[in-house]
Design brief:
With about 350 residues, the protein is mostly beta strands. The chain has a single domain (about 40-350), classed as Methylamine Dehydrogenase, Chain H (7 Propeller). It contains no helices and 32 strands. A 4-stranded antiparallel sheet has the order 1-32-31-30, with no helix packed on it. Strands 2-3-4-5 form a 4-stranded antiparallel sheet, with no helix packed on it. A hairpin with a 2-residue loop joins strand 18 and strand 19. It is globular, with a radius of gyration of 19 Å.
């Protein structure tokens, strides 16, 4: 359904979870005011639990029913649809001409992002909820079969497989030589990206579904043990921890010297990245599992609605009732915000 025609300028790219492999979440001067109108609304036909991604004027969303939709970001009209072999909870990643995503059928798919034709697929032993991450032409991802996979992005040819101690729902953070991720065995792992060799692991008190960010040689990640961790990226030594009221599945977003994340206790937290000191916390819902996204002086979170909070003090700047998906992430593109909701709707707001 088209609510109001958009302008003719395509928005800037947002090709993976939290915009890029650095989890920057935008950090450009996006509008801090409340959206005044809906540009368009797209009905996907089933629940949307992953986040949209955006490249060259097309928005891509995956649904629990296994459908992948390519949508014109300006008009809201469907461009193509691809049907996977199971439910999809994985946020896709875009690289070159391909789109990569995991599926509950245990496969990771590579699909041509221009026309929706399948390029390759690779089978794992269990569902893949993590988002594939591409670095130097290699696609890295974890599976609930306890393994981390490295495959060639162009062909799907396996490079290596490394078994860890538990299911993997955490999306990998890839640097030039290392991979960082959390695991269901309660450990944070650092792997050699060329071989998959475990360089170090650090134990927390419970399983980890949160995806890490790495900044200033610190690995930042939450655990279901209620604690948020800062760990040395080089040695695996814990630098500091911060305790919340419940488990942490939300992945962090980093801006300047602040780290933002949600907790299942319903609060959005802002900590000083270097020390772990609390800057503020604001209640935004009963449970917060989505990652926040940082704009220019504003942090956005979906928790039963979309909230925009002042990064300096945590005060709510505005709230939109649309986009109630608690696991999704808003996409910020210029003056537009794209939201996916649990009821299967995709919205473009301005």
């Amino acid at each position: 359904m088209i609510i109001e025609p958009g302008n003719s300028n395509p928005p800037e790219d947002w090709p993976t979870l939290l915009k890029d492999n650095a989890r920057s979440g935008g950090q450009k001067p996006y509008a801090a005011r409340s959206p005044e109108k809906a540009l368009w609304q797209f009905r996907a036909g089933s629940s949307l639990r992953s986040a949209p991604v955006l490249k060259e004027g097309k928005l891509y969303v995956t649904s629990v029913a296994g459908a992948v939709h390519a949508i014109d970001a300006v008009t809201g009209l469907a461009k193509w649809k691809f049907q996977a072999g199971g439910q999809v909870h994985s946020t896709p990643s875009l690289f070159a001409d391909q789109m990569f995503f995991g599926c509950d059928d245990g496969k990771v798919y590579a699909v041509n992002r221009h026309d929706g034709t399948k390029t390759w697929e690779i089978q794992t032993g269990a569902e893949v909820w993590a988002s594939p991450v591409i670095r130097n032409g290699i696609t890295f991802f974890g599976s609930a079969d306890t393994r981390v996979y490295a495959v060639e992005a162009a062909t799907g040819k396996p490079r290596w497989v490394q078994e860890l101690g538990g299911r993997i729902y955490s999306t990998i953070y890839a640097t030039e030589r290392q991979l960082y991720l959390g695991c269901g065995d309660g450990k944070v792992y650092c792997l050699d990206s060329s071989s998959g060799k475990i360089l170090w692991s650090t134990e927390t008190g419970n399983g980890i579904d949160s995806s890490p960010a790495v900044v200033d040689e610190l690995v930042l990640i939450g655990s279901e043990d209620f604690f948020f961790y800062a760990i040395s990226a080089t040695t695996g030594q814990t630098r500091w921890t911060y305790e919340t009221g419940l488990g942490i599945a939300s992945s962090p977003a980093i801006s300047s010297d602040s780290t933002f994340f949600g907790s299942k206790d319903g609060f959005l937290y802002a900590l000083e990245t270097r020390t772990g000191k609390l800057r503020w916390k604001t209640v935004v819902g009963e449970v917060v599992t989505a990652p926040p996204v940082v704009g220019d002086g504003v942090v956005y979170i979906q928790a039963g609605g979309t909230f925009a909070l002042d990064t300096a003090n945590g005060n709510v700047v505005w709230r939109a009732a649309l986009g109630g998906a608690i696991q999704s992430v808003p996409v910020l593109a210029g003056e537009s915000i794209y939201l996916a909701s649990l009821n299967g709707e995709v919205y473009a707001l301005r």
